[in-house]
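Lab notes, practical 5.
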Amino acid sequence: MTVPFLKGKYMHLYTKDGYYQIGHDIETYPDAVAFFVIGGRGTGKTYGTLKYMLDKDEPIVYVKRTKDDVDLICASGSDTTGMIQFNPYEQINRDYDREIIADPIKKGFGAFYDCTNEEKKFVGYITALSAVANVKGFEMQRATWQIFDEFIPIKGQRVSKSEGTNTLDLYETVNRSRDVRGADPLRMIFLANSTSLNNQIFEVFDLIDTVQQMKTDGKSALYLPERFIFIRLLDDNEEFQKRRGRSKIFAAVGKESSWSRSALANEFAFDDDSMIEKHSLSGWRADYRVKFNDGKLFYVYRRGKKFYLSSATHTSGRLYDCDTDGGKQAFREKVIDLRWANADGDLTSEKFSFYAYVRDFK
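Output from the prediction step:
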């Protein structure tokens, strides 16, 4: 692929004030259908994305996780006092003297309108992933972009196991009518801070190991042309981080705690990848196999009390098919052994996705 030379407003990745310009990546990679923008606290990911869509007059489907999230956004209604600030356009309204409001339509579903010039101009839809089944009958064909904000949940947040497939179902619902009309395909943007690599969206797009390798290699951008996927790992806004770092809460919990490192350094601090290694299999005994996450496989090898999770195939031992309830229940005993080995430093894994499956197995 030939990357175009950009001129004008979006020729730089960041503004002079250190804010991310998603237009730079969208216009550099015009064939990409899915953009993943992770990290960069204080760099204006959501603000810049919504402003770009406004400037380009691109209607959106703005996606949040739950119906309550959508109801909070719509609670602002036509409030312009700034007292209610759940509307993601609030800062844009203040900076550009706009009046973009959020109106509820039904539980977990609403719409944005621009009422700046005393007319109600459609800006986009708002929907919750948990309401996907309820919005399948709605025509959302005007949307050209689907934006999932905060797609990586914060630690401890309850997330549906079907979140990844719900995201794809919503995409298909919106895109189907565009296909019928011969319009360009709907495009997607996923925005989040770097809380954890093991999340439902990375899983359904098979990106856990890809992003982990980017982190290891120090890469900030990657385009996968055969998959039409672009990934951007943003740096943090240094001035913003300096101001946040002076907050007394970081002194209270300790700046080297996982929470502080995630909040300040934005570095997937809740993911320990120190056990990720690739071994020669000399001296290792093939033990058993595990099928997980819709047909993916990893193979367990053992040497004494040590375990290794590998992609190197073997046919020894039992196949635990964790895509079935019976196989998952049978694998539960093996998980206990692997977790004890991990606690003792005796577990290594070729890929982070293998380790994460064991770590987060339920």
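Observations recorded by the TA: Residues 71 and 108 are 6 Å apart (CA to CA). The chain is about 35% helix and 20% strand.
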